[in-house]
Amino acid sequence: MATLTSNQEWIPTLNITSNASGAAEAARKGDVVMIVDLISMSTTVETALDAGAIDVFGASPDCVSTPVTVNPEKIGYFAGKKALKNDTELIIATEPRLASNEERKDNIQLALTGIKRAGVEIDTIIPNLGAEIVKLVDFEGKVVLVITDTGGTAYDAAYNHGAPEVITGTVARTFKKSGVMPAKESAQRAIIAAQKFKTGITLVAASSNSHEDVLAAEQIGKLIIEEGFLQI
After folding, report:
1. Residue percentage of the chain with pLDDT more than 90
2. Mean local confidence (pLDDT), 168-178
């Protein structure tokens, strides 16, 4: 967590952790939390933003097993309210990839309950496909809720344990970005959020069992350091 000295000077910090438990701990410390779920939650989010989504949320499915508190109904409610406020559609991206909408709905009833409580009807539920989601629906001006076992659950944990802001990051190719640009923009997003709230940054590899998530979080961390964040 970033700290303030006796004369209120902000001292930025950077940490890397993993799993929903790490996300919850970082949130409780007051850090901006970036979720890195390369395949595919954070890549889906980045692609949706590339394609014009105005805001993106993450949530856990119903039957997830995690040692920390999650509340997908609460996130569904706030995602729904965001869509209502902007007079726009809420799009859900979830799993399994190869299934009907009805099958996908089976494990996201808590989030759907929150969305309905917000007064929103859901017509569009798409699979969590990373960069390929742009082929399925128009994201321009829409709000997106990504509900997945790892990235969505880590986001949910950070959100519900009080992080000042929960964002996502990826190093994978997206709709408009390739090469190092996804990682660079992720690093810059984290820095901007931390500067806004005068906090540290914690990068969360969505699963400690996912080598690609861990390596991606490390790569984004290196770019945050190269941008001079720790010397601010």
Report:
1. 90
2. 95
Under a CB-based contact definition with an 8 Å cutoff, are residues 12 and 229 in contact? yes
pLDDT value of residue 5: 47
Read off the pLDDT band of 2 (50, 70, 90).
low
Per the structure, the count of domains in the chain is 1
Comparing C-alpha atoms, which of 172, 163, 136, 158 is closest to residue 71? 158
Q: Comparing C-alpha atoms, which of 129, 203, 160 is closest to residue 66?
A: 160
Which CATH number characterizes residue 123's domain?
Answer: 3.90.1560
- 13 burial level (CB within 10 Å; 0-12, 13-18, 19+): middle
Q: Global pTM? A: 0.95
Calculate the alpha carbon distances from 203 to 4, 54, 70, 170, 200 in Å: 21, 23, 19, 11, 10
> Do 177 and 46 touch, CB atoms closer than 8 A?
yes
CA angle 156, 33, 138 (to 5 degrees): 65
Round to whole Å and give the CA distance between 18 and 60: 16
Model confidence at 231: pLDDT above 50: yes
**How many C-beta atoms surround the C-beta of residue 105 within 10 A?**
16
